[in-house]
Specification:
seven-stranded parallel β-sheet, 335 residues, alpha/beta, 9 helices, binds flavin-adenine dinucleotide, 28% helix, elongated, five-stranded parallel β-sheet
Amino acid sequence: MIPPAYGPEAASGLWVYLEQEGGRLESVALELIGKGRELAARKGTPLTGLLLGAEVHEAARAAIAYGAEHVLLADHQLLATYTTDAYTNVAARIILDRRPETLLLGATPSGRDLAGRLAVRLRTGLTADCTGLALEAGTGLLLGEVTGFGGGVRASIKCAHHRPQMATVRPGIFPLVDPDLMRKGSVEHVPVALSREEIRTEILERDLREGVDITRARVIVAGGRGAKGDFAPLLELARLLGGEVGASRVACDLGWISRDRQIGQTGFVTRPELAIVCGVSGATQFTVGIKDAGCVVAINGDPDAPIFEEADLCIVDDLFPVLEALIAEINRRRP
Ligand SMILES: Cc1cc2nc3c(=O)[nH]c(=O)nc-3n(C[C@H](O)[C@H](O)[C@H](O)COP(=O)(O)OP(=O)(O)OC[C@H]3O[C@@H](n4cnc5c(N)ncnc54)[C@H](O)[C@@H]3O)c2cc1C
């Protein structure tokens, strides 16, 4: 066993990494504050947010409104944009100094990058891409729920001897709690010793796009291979219902729709009030992304399609005339 940098006896507190972009906290960080608060309360331990950036004081305040009790703020110009070296060096120093028992991060591109680097630097374990978090009865150890082998296996992973217990969690898994702007908390500025020589990469250009966020959609009209490359009726129905279009991985792989709309194990986990699922067979890798939907309407030509086992309303038919009829009916009822 690789000796831990520090063990359970020296560790305390539950931390959430407060990922931000341009001073705005990523929604998964807010979701993790909500879940972290619940876990911290059960353990009787404080909930701390770890925030790195440049001039991001407002983000610290937002984290407190969402439920963080204490925010450790590392503010430095070299942290203005994410780089693996700068963020790993600064976060690792703070963690080794303060020794949290648990550290939760969002499974975003940079959250995943940072988590992997930190786990190696801190000589601890990382449960990546969790779809659930729990505490083990008796020991209180963090249990990270993950799926493996193409969704065929669900496992709970714990990190018994090394600290911090680290987990990344996919966006959209936990609901967003309501902020309370009156909530009190403390912000502690942590001194940052960071030099440009520590950073081996240079950001020449950043291409940030404001993509769709299907994890927040109240209505989703999702299409699969059965849509045969024609997403126009799905887009129209989604527009009429004030929702977003989602898709199976096959539909994204075939280039029919952008990857940021993929639902499922390797896509996004959604929780809409209504999901209308068209021409999707219902593989578990897809359904894991809609299992928390309020109502699932499935349209499929095959009466034995597994998607019908997940559906509240089943329409066995060709999806195109059904969507056409739905769109016509909504238009007819519109004032
Ligand atoms: C590790 C791993 C991760 C994965 N992650 C994901 C993931 O995140 N998301 C995901 O979606 N998949 C994922 N997959 C793939 C998944 O296993 C399935 O292959 C995929 O979901 C199938 O997509 P589909 O339902 O669109 O296509 P198909 O399985 O081919 O189903 C098409 C369906 O359309 C119906 N149909 C055809 N024509 C019509 C019509 N005109 N009207 C009505 N119905 C029609 C058919 O009856 C059929 O049921 C993953 C697989 C692996 C191994």
